[in-house]
Write a structure and sequence with these properties.
By secondary structure, the protein is an alpha/beta fold. The protein has helices spanning about 55-75, 95-105, 125-140, 155-170, 185-205, 220-225, 235-240, 245; strands at about 20-25, 30, 45-50, 80-85, 115-120, 145-150, 175-180. Helix content is about 35%, strand content about 10%. A five-stranded parallel beta sheet has the order 5-4-1-6-7. A two-stranded antiparallel sheet has the order 2-3.
Length: about 270
């Protein structure tokens, strides 16, 4: 049975009233030294990133800082999720856990906000950032959120708001997108790769079913395997069985058919 949105009542856990999910989409693995304070994460040398991500250490750190600022601004209602899997051959540490480490190194996690920050260490792409963060939120609170704040690069907003959010059937009016782009990179350079990504996602918005790591289609499957060098399988089909049909939905015969059955965030 799919859990429905409902109001908190007496006897519910403290997290029950928190209906605002804040997602920081992770884009690298922080490996910087501990105890670095305000300088932690600012240099590219502090990160393992993709070859085309030069001069982005500062940007990824700003994503993290903004996520925590959004949490502190609405602490009584919010849960912050760092989302990103173990995507790098150099270390089995997940992107999500490394962001949490960075927040610790920068002294950003006070006792007051610590219970409101969790990690989602399995997502391998931007669509999974959304779906898996929703599941982690539900696992942690026993509720589904009513609002999402999503933090990533500004140049990726079309992909998230125009492709992923509709595929997830999340209402756009309950999404707040916060985008921060790398400083000093021309927009044309940023948009060139993103245009290709939007074409690929637009043709196959469910990526063959996010729960089917070994069954992804063609080049998408090869790319996904490369993003998962440690062969880690996300556990959500087992830990959230009520969403199994949705997690495994592959878009029907044309790959683009929106998931047709009820979802817990339907209102």
């Amino acid at each position: 049975m799919i859990g429905k949105l409902r109001r908190a009542v007496a006897g519910d856990p403290p997290t029950a009233a928190r209906r605002h999910l804040i997602i920081v989409c992770c884009h690298g693995v922080y490996i910087g030294p501990g105890g670095a304070g305000d300088s932690a994460g600012m240099r590219d040398e502090d990160w393992i990133m993709e070859p085309g991500q030069g001069n982005e250490g500062l940007t990824l750190t700003e994503h993290l800082k903004k996520g925590i600022a959004e949490l502190e601004r609405d602490l009584e209602n919010s849960i912050l999720v760092f989302s990103g899997g173990a995507t790098k051959t150099q270390t089995p540490k997940s992107e999500a856990l490394s962001y949490y480490d960075l927040a610790i190194h920068r002294n950003l996690i006070s006792p007051a906000i610590r219970p409101s920050i969790i990690t989602e260490p399995f997502a391998l792409d931007s669509y999974e950032n959304i779906i898996y963060s929703l599941v982690r939120y539900y696992q942690y609170t026993s509720w589904w959120p009513t609002h999402i704040t999503l933090l990533s690069h500004a140049f990726k907003e079309r992909r998230f708001a125009g492709i992923h959010i509709p595929a997830a059937r999340w209402p756009l009016e309950r999404l707040h997108y916060v985008g921060i782009d790398p400083v000093g990179k021309p927009q044309e350079e940023l948009q060139a790769g993103e245009r290709w990504a939007c074409v690929v996602w637009g043709e196959d918005p469910y990526a063959g079913g996010v729960g089917k790591v070994g069954q992804r289609r063609g080049g998408r499957g090869q790319w996904k395997e490369a993003r998962n060098p440690w062969k880690i399988q996300a556990p959500y089909l087992v830990t959230c069985p009520e969403l199994e049909p949705f997690i495994e939905w592959a878009g029907g015969k044309d790959r683009k058919t929106v998931y047709p059955d009820p979802l817990p965030w339907d209102i």
